[in-house]
Amino acid sequence: MTIDDDVKRIAEGFNLDPSLIQAVVNAEGGGDHIIRAVQCSIPSVTTREEAIRITCRSAVHRMRDFIVENGHRGAFVAYWAKKWAPRGAENDPHDQNANWPANVLSGWRNA
Predict the structure, then answer these.
(1) From CA 96, how far away is CA 86, in angstroms rounded?
(2) Most buried of the four, 50, 55, 58, 62, by CB within 10 Å?
Protein backbone atom coordinates (compact mmCIF):
# COMPACT_ATOMS: atom_id res chain seq x y z
CA MET A 1 0.00 0.00 0.00
CA THR A 2 1.27 3.45 -0.87
CA ILE A 3 1.12 5.96 1.98
CA ASP A 4 0.06 9.44 0.90
CA ASP A 5 2.46 12.19 2.00
CA ASP A 6 -0.22 14.07 3.96
CA VAL A 7 -1.38 10.90 5.70
CA LYS A 8 2.21 10.07 6.69
CA ARG A 9 2.90 13.56 8.04
CA ILE A 10 -0.32 13.89 10.00
CA ALA A 11 -0.34 10.33 11.37
CA GLU A 12 3.25 10.64 12.53
CA GLY A 13 2.31 13.90 14.27
CA PHE A 14 -0.15 11.85 16.33
CA ASN A 15 2.45 9.07 16.82
CA LEU A 16 0.23 6.73 14.83
CA ASP A 17 1.23 4.14 12.26
CA PRO A 18 0.57 5.89 8.94
CA SER A 19 -0.43 2.59 7.36
CA LEU A 20 -3.39 2.36 9.77
CA ILE A 21 -4.65 5.80 8.78
CA GLN A 22 -3.99 5.15 5.09
CA ALA A 23 -6.02 1.94 5.39
CA VAL A 24 -8.92 3.99 6.80
CA VAL A 25 -8.60 6.56 4.00
CA ASN A 26 -8.57 3.74 1.44
CA ALA A 27 -11.53 1.99 3.08
CA GLU A 28 -13.49 5.24 2.73
CA GLY A 29 -12.78 5.32 -1.00
CA GLY A 30 -9.39 7.04 -1.10
CA GLY A 31 -8.64 10.59 -2.17
CA ASP A 32 -11.02 13.18 -0.81
CA HIS A 33 -13.69 10.63 0.12
CA ILE A 34 -12.33 10.82 3.68
CA ILE A 35 -13.84 14.32 3.85
CA ARG A 36 -17.35 12.98 3.23
CA ALA A 37 -16.80 10.16 5.73
CA VAL A 38 -15.82 12.61 8.47
CA GLN A 39 -18.64 14.98 7.49
CA CYS A 40 -21.12 12.29 8.62
CA SER A 41 -20.15 13.22 12.19
CA ILE A 42 -18.71 16.71 11.74
CA PRO A 43 -20.47 18.47 8.84
CA SER A 44 -18.25 21.55 9.03
CA VAL A 45 -15.16 19.65 7.79
CA THR A 46 -14.18 20.91 4.34
CA THR A 47 -10.56 19.90 3.75
CA ARG A 48 -8.72 16.62 3.42
CA GLU A 49 -6.11 17.81 5.94
CA GLU A 50 -8.78 18.49 8.54
CA ALA A 51 -10.48 15.16 7.82
CA ILE A 52 -7.22 13.23 8.24
CA ARG A 53 -6.48 15.05 11.52
CA ILE A 54 -9.93 14.15 12.84
CA THR A 55 -9.43 10.55 11.72
CA CYS A 56 -6.11 10.42 13.60
CA ARG A 57 -7.62 11.98 16.71
CA SER A 58 -10.45 9.47 16.56
CA ALA A 59 -7.96 6.59 16.30
CA VAL A 60 -6.11 7.82 19.40
CA HIS A 61 -9.38 8.12 21.34
CA ARG A 62 -10.54 4.67 20.26
CA MET A 63 -7.18 3.15 21.29
CA ARG A 64 -7.61 4.68 24.73
CA ASP A 65 -11.18 3.39 24.93
CA PHE A 66 -10.03 -0.07 23.85
CA ILE A 67 -7.44 -0.19 26.63
CA VAL A 68 -9.90 0.95 29.29
CA GLU A 69 -13.04 -0.89 28.18
CA ASN A 70 -11.31 -4.20 27.58
CA GLY A 71 -9.42 -4.28 30.86
CA HIS A 72 -5.97 -3.75 29.35
CA ARG A 73 -4.88 -0.91 31.64
CA GLY A 74 -2.37 -3.06 33.48
CA ALA A 75 -0.84 -4.47 30.32
CA PHE A 76 -0.58 -1.00 28.78
CA VAL A 77 1.05 0.54 31.86
CA ALA A 78 3.52 -2.35 32.10
CA TYR A 79 4.37 -1.92 28.42
CA TRP A 80 4.77 1.84 28.81
CA ALA A 81 6.93 1.43 31.93
CA LYS A 82 9.52 -0.51 29.93
CA LYS A 83 10.21 2.66 27.91
CA TRP A 84 9.24 5.46 30.29
CA ALA A 85 10.51 4.16 33.63
CA PRO A 86 12.66 1.07 33.02
CA ARG A 87 14.15 -0.79 35.95
CA GLY A 88 17.89 -0.34 36.17
CA ALA A 89 17.84 3.06 34.47
CA GLU A 90 20.92 5.18 35.13
CA ASN A 91 18.78 8.00 36.56
CA ASP A 92 17.08 5.65 39.04
CA PRO A 93 19.84 4.50 41.45
CA HIS A 94 17.35 3.51 44.19
CA ASP A 95 15.10 1.41 41.91
CA GLN A 96 12.07 3.62 42.38
CA ASN A 97 10.97 2.63 38.88
CA ALA A 98 10.03 -0.74 40.36
CA ASN A 99 6.97 0.98 41.84
CA TRP A 100 6.13 3.13 38.81
CA PRO A 101 3.68 0.73 37.10
CA ALA A 102 1.71 0.06 40.29
CA ASN A 103 1.61 3.74 41.22
CA VAL A 104 0.45 4.82 37.78
CA LEU A 105 -2.14 2.06 37.55
CA SER A 106 -3.48 2.87 41.01
CA GLY A 107 -3.77 6.54 40.17
CA TRP A 108 -5.43 5.85 36.82
CA ARG A 109 -8.05 3.54 38.35
CA ASN A 110 -8.83 6.01 41.11
CA ALA A 111 -9.03 9.10 38.92
Answers:
(1) 10
(2) 55
